[in-house]
Amino acid sequence: xxxxxxxxxxxxxxxxxxxxxxxxxxxxxxxxxxxxxxxxxxxxxxxxxxxxxxxxxxxxxxxxxxxxxxxxxxxxxxxxxxxxxxxxxxxxxxxxxxxxxxxxxxxxxxxxxxxxxxxxxxxxxxxxxxxxxxxxxxxxxxxxxxxxxxxxxxxxxxxxxxxxxxxxxxxxxxxxxxxxxxxxxxxxxx
Length: 190
Prior knowledge:
The protein is an alpha+beta fold. About 65% of the residues lie in helices and about 15% in strands.
């Protein structure tokens, strides 16, 4: 994961983050609480806590998306590399010898004659046949998209971290403001 400084720098540079609402730092808690009128500190802290929980939920979803992408990228990369090997064997008009994984630790030897076609699993039990050139372009595009998406998720996680830290600080400041206010009221009543 990126360092705190990188997270802050990225958050300053890039303002749009997948619809994640930006937390506003409370500079002047006293002025802020005056604008809330009859709403007490407990109510404000409760709303801030709800916002904090939403940020944590978003973080959980983004981390799941990141794990999924991190597992998908190596598969895309190896498939892309294999298509390039098939393309090279076609150019050299050479039969390719390899082993196929049948099940856990069970392999079968195979010879692949030069070919113009390749079949790719697209997901949801769907396989399509492509020309090698077309498959290479598709896999290259998908690999680049997955990497860009992963970078976007990392940026969103940095931004989100900044937002929930800001919310935690706001909660602490409102709580401390309330404690100070109560101490002043208690001292004036004594």
